[in-house]
């Protein structure tokens, strides 16, 4: 087992929550206002799990067309240009991504974006669109806007709103769009970007003056403010092993807290980092956060093998069966509401200055 599995947990530090947005945590002790989620009390042993690993998904499977893929450990992965993207792109993963979309939108107060964009944008670009669900819902929300989703895998549905389209391309290559955008959006790109500063700089170049970039991403560290989660427990070891595996692939596993700095360095102004603690499981007292936590738990349970296999087998040299045995311990802790586990979700946006010169 890698030494990365034994390192201590780190609590998140100075982040921001937008005042008055309805997204900030309440009732927090001094010094933990940004991270505290009030737990429902009391817990009894009968409330330590929600469903099981084979529970029904909230989403319907999407049919996909994949033009370039390989199979490892009975999972399908994108293979173009020697990709080492650590997540699969098979039907099970697409279902999980759609479930996670619902979870993240709910955590953002039901909003698809927080950036205060023009009410009648002309062009929107969604980087790493995945199943295309965010782009499709944005197309419904803004029917007069051209919405373009970009991804390296052709896993998007065939029937979409007439103002929505998709392209198969690597967004880390130089861009060649003929027209600029009002909003460039990316979500859940942790572990899929090799050069974040360059990506943010490309977004700056291809935004109109006054346009917005919005990135929504994570810090992969788990922590608790009042629960039984401890550094060195199987869940902590798992998260750190996945993060070190992603790093070994040349990707950043913790982009969330760095997004604000990258945007400011690229020249964006009025940059706002909205820190949203994400509960894992149905332990919060607040009903909306309880639903968010339940959905977050479901997507982690659905995706646990897919998230883990490449990181553990490629980087840490575990056998697939060893990984599956270890994941049984991780599932048990995820299902234990007494752990009161949470992790941090950042929604960060910034504006290209109106007087910007490209």
Automatic annotation (TrEMBL):
Keywords: Methyltransferase, Transferase. Residues 37-55 have a biased composition (Acidic residues). CDD domains: AdoMet_MTases. Residues 1-56 are annotated as: Disordered. The keyword Methyltransferase applies. One of its GO terms (molecular function) is methyltransferase activity. This is S-adenosyl-L-methionine-dependent methyltransferase. The lineage of its organism: Eukaryota, Fungi, Dikarya, Ascomycota, Pezizomycotina.
């Amino acid at each position: 087992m890698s030494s990365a599995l034994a390192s201590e947990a780190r609590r998140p530090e100075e982040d921001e929550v937008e005042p008055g947005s309805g997204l900030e945590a309440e009732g927090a002790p001094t010094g933990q206002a940004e991270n505290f989620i009030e737990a429902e009390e009391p817990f009894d042993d009968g409330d330590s799990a929600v469903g099981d690993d084979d529970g029904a998904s909230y989403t319907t499977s999407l049919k996909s067309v994949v033009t370039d893929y390989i199979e490892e450990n009975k999972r399908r992965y994108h293979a173009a240009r020697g990709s080492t993207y650590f997540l699969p792109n098979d039907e099970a993963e697409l279902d999980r991504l759609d479930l996670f979309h619902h979870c993240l939108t709910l955590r953002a107060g039901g909003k698809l974006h927080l950036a205060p964009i023009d009410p009648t944008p002309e062009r929107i670009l969604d980087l790493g669109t995945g199943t295309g669900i965010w782009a499709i819902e944005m197309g419904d929300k803004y029917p007069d806007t051209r919405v373009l989703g970009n991804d390296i895998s052709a896993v998007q549905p065939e029937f979409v709103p007439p103002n929505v389209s998709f392209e198969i391309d690597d967004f880390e290559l130089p861009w060649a769009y003929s027209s600029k955008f009002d909003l460039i959006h990316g979500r859940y790109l942790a572990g899929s970007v090799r050069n974040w500063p360059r990506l943010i700089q490309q977004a700056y170049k291809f935004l109109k003056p006054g346009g917005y970039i919005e990135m929504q991403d994570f810090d992969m560290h788990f922590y608790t403010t009042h629960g039984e989660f401890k550094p060195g427990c199987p869940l902590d070891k798992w998260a750190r092993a996945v993060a070190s595996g992603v790093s070994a692939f040349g990707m950043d596993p913790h982009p969330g807290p760095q997004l604000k700095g990258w945007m400011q360095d690229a020249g964006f102004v009025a940059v706002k980092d909205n820190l949203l603690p994400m509960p894992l499981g149905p332990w919060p007292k607040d009903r909306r956060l309880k639903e968010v936590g339940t959905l977050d738990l479901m997507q982690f349970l659905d995706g646990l093998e897919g998230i883990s296999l490449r990181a553990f087998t490629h980087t840490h040299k575990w056998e697939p069966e060893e990984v599956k045995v270890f994941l049984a311990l991780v599932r048990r802790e995820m299902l234990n509401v007494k752990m009161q586990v949470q992790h941090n979700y950042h929604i960060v946006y910034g504006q290209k200055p109106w007087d910007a010169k490209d």
